[in-house]
Amino acid sequence: MNRRQKTLIYASFSAFLLIAVMAAGSFLTEEATRVDFARKNLLPSLGHIYGTDWFGRDMFIRTVKGLSLSIVIGALSTIGSGLIALMMGTAAAIGGRRVDACVNWLIDVVMGVPMLIFLILVSFIVGKGPQGIIVGMILTHWTYLARVVRAEVLQLKSSQYVIAARSMGKSNAYIALRHILPHAYPQFLVGLILMFPHTILHEASLTFLGFGLSPHQPGIGVILSESLNYLSAGQWWTALMPGLSLLVIVRLFDLLGDSIQSLYNPYKSHE
Amino acid sequence: MTIPLKPNPPLALPRFVILLRYSGKKALRLLLLMFAVSVVCFVLMKFSPIDPIEAYIGGEHASLPPEQIEHLREYWGLNDGFAVRYVKWIRGLLEGNMGTSIVYNQPVADVIAEKFSASLLLMGTSWALSGILGFSMGIIGALNRGKLVDKFIKLYCLTLASAPIFWVGILLLIVFSVWLGWFPIGLSAPIDATAAEATWGDRLYHLILPALTLSLTGVASIALHTRQKLIDVLDSDYALFAKARGAGKWLLFKRHGFKNILLPAITLQFGTIAELFGGSTLAEGIFSYPGLGKAVVEAGIRADLPLLVGIALFASAFVFAGNFIANLLYAAVDPRIREGARRI
């Protein structure tokens, strides 16, 4: 088996797992996390592999629901950020020196403000809950990808085949669609997938601090900040397992992004 | 026909003028960025759902007659145009008037000064620790590429890079506070003593866990980066040539590796200050460490807009200052910038 096939298997495996978590989370109903004091504070066992919490809710089900909500929020913010990045990056690359300087400066401004503090400020103004997180993340996460898009388009713009096409009288739209887009979109896609884990982690952090999801919504941040209250009672499993699951999901997205990148990269794909 | 020899170009400006011009440019950039951040903060404040009158007078504002409220609005300049209000606000800021914190009932500048000294200790410790540790880990990994040590370092960094900081903090709390009982759960000073009375020993004692959390997670990016850079250097032609002449691994690193990887590492480490701020917010939350991070969360939850905006402004100034120092260090270390125009 060569590396390309291995990478493909990795990629499809992580994609499958992520979709499975999302689907499982949306099929689970309120009934699954019903409060049941008869089975509270159970250690992880075969029946409840993540144990149960103070109210007897199964931690595994809560974790899966939380993760699937995180993935949905992450997806929305990633798409929004990606669109901004696409516009900003393209504008910087083709809009001339002034626009370029402007966009670069804007990127510096956004990157200079500590992200978590900016997110707190935005969520305070837009309101707590998913919409506050999503707006905040869309406003802050586009910078890196915008740089990638800008560099990519700049490089393509001055490539031989684009210059040749232009001198043959092809229209701008034709060049953009036939020559720039096919080369730029893999980079963009990879950037999007790699942005995903960041949004998920930031959502969890924000929720953990009390600004994101409200305490009755399922969320890893909610679970972990709750677990802080029961630590002194020796409940380690309510913190360990959900956090570990979050870590695994984030790693999976990273792996997915990396493997797609190496599949698309002509220099790497046949190694 | 003889071509007249061109006279040597006059020696470029003296070194300190180049450095001065360079740092002047960077300082101007810093000022521009701060201006942008202040505008963003002001716009956000303008759109916030908090009515200043309501915030200051509290629930009683309903019992005030409308003329009185109108009078107050006029008095505080709330009816002025956007630009006028901004100029007034920024003038106040420059004079050091950042408003009064609602939560702490103190001038915002005082609150920030007090909290920041605690945060600075935490961030400085973990910044230095993670920098040195990460740098050494990267070097060890690259020099032993492909061996077990390298694999372990890579795995550690990749895992910790995706781990939520607050989760790492909770795990440390479980191990060291709950199971081993070495540290109390929370507070940077004993609960019965005021902050001023806490001894240095106390402070250090309560600093250990949050600093450990930030350092454990902070090493990842710098270690991976340093490792990659050093591998690039070791794969280069000049390294191959040195090897052919019989240079050992250590000599190769000392003569060719170290200087080449130091610069990017410095930039990267100064660039992480923004992230460190976020990380310390989380760590302070978990370990109830009374720093800026804890204050910003408090301000956000209890709708203390002056403090929130004050901290946001202060934090960005801090981050920009970090980047500025990195640029100056760069100029001092990198001969290409230091010698500037003289080479061209």
From TrEMBL, chain A:
CDD domains: TM_PBP2 (cd06261)
Cellular compartments annotated: Cell membrane
GO terms, biological process: transmembrane transport
Domain ABC transmembrane type-1: 67-257
Keywords: Cell membrane, Membrane, Transmembrane, Transmembrane helix, Transport
Presence of the UniProt keyword Membrane in the record: yes
SUPFAM superfamilies: MetI-like (SSF161098)
Alphabetized PROSITE patterns for the sequence: ABC_TM1
Keyword Transport attached: yes
Topology class, membrane: Multi-pass membrane protein
TM ranges: 7-28, 67-93, 105-126
A Pfam family matched in the record: BPD_transp_1
Top-rank lineage group of the source organism: Bacteria
GO (cellular component) term, any one: plasma membrane
Similarity-based family: Belongs to the binding-protein-dependent transport system permease family.
Protein name per the record: ABC transporter permease
Source species: Paenibacillus arenilitoris
UniProtKB/TrEMBL annotation, chain B:
Pfam families documented for this protein: BPD_transp_1 (PF00528), BPD_transp_1_N (PF19300)
CC per GO annotation: plasma membrane
Main subcellular location of this protein, as a coarse class: membrane
Sorted UniProt keywords: Cell membrane, Membrane, Transmembrane, Transmembrane helix, Transport
Domain of life assignment: Bacteria
TM annotation in the entry: 27-45, 120-143, 155-183, 203-224, 261-287, 307-333
GO biological process: transmembrane transport
Membrane topology: Multi-pass membrane protein
Domain ABC transmembrane type-1: 116-330
Subcellular location, record wording: Cell membrane
Family that this chain belongs to: Belongs to the binding-protein-dependent transport system permease family.
Protein name: ABC transporter permease
Organism of origin: Paenibacillus arenilitoris
